[in-house]
Amino acid sequence: xxxxxxxxxxxxxxxxLGNVFAALISWASVRSRGGEWVLRMEDLDTQRTxxxxxxxxxxxxxxxxxxxxxxxxAQSTRSAVYQRYFHRLEALGLLYPCYCTRSQLxxxxxxxxxxxTYIYPGTCRDLSPEQRAAQTRPPAWRIRTPDQTxxxxxxxxxxxxxxxxxxxxxxxxxxxxxxxxxQLAVTVDDGESGVTEVVRGVDLLSSAPRxxxxxxxxxxxxxxxxxxxxxxxxxGRRLSKRDADLDLGALRQRVSSEEVIGVLAAAAGLIxxxxxxSAQELASQFxxxxxxxxxxxxxxxxxxx
Length: 305
Ligand code: GLU
What we know:
The chain has about 300 residues and is α/β, with parallel strands linked by helices. It is about 35% helix and about 15% strand. The strands form four sheets. Strands 3-2-1-9-10 form a five-stranded parallel beta sheet, covered by helices on one side. The radius of gyration is 20 Å and the shape is elongated. The structure holds glutamic acid (GLU).
């Protein structure tokens, strides 16, 4: 079977060191085994994203030496495609309208997930046709989740499992304003473009069981997953978009792409000690076995500042 990896950035600003790390690992993983690499712009949030950011992102990838074989259409252009898959889920009898307001959802006394969303308590799951007809606001659409544990063997995090009903709850696939959500869009896009390996930050690990559930329902094979650690400063502080001096706009004025790659490769333990190197050189010595954990201190951070 052919190997297809992908990078699916949100073009809402300049690439940050964390995005560079995800792109680099995904690229090196597939290129080290002769696989294909696909680029996709995740611009569902049209308020925050722009074509100009998408273009800068492509230039930043080129500067890093990360080449892609094809770019699949941006998510903002694919609403009609997502709608088709939405109707397939509807035909399976798995979708229902949810009229809960944001404040209702936040006031329920339910434990919440690591990404800040609440475990949906099923408020609108079994409304009668009369109760639905009496609603006045447009609904979001949720998918029923099974009382079933979904497991995966993550390339960086090892065994991970989640019971979708108990640990996530029925989740939204289309918002009340008609926008299809990330979970559905990413499943359809990865599935249709034949992606076999998904590499991204560990903050998205808990999305994998939701996406695997949708893959099963929509007839797509499960890809391999590698959820890589989040970058932190040597003192343990999480690096974020607020560290503007570590976005590629600033980095490109100070250091070379080989220096950026060398710092990240050394932090990840992919090379024994810091040395500037090209993406190509990294691919030739790439091994998943070295990448694990949830946080990765950038030990040579001072070289980039
Ligand atoms: N678009 C997401 C981001 O930029 C990544 C989603 C994914 O890789 O599945 O963080």
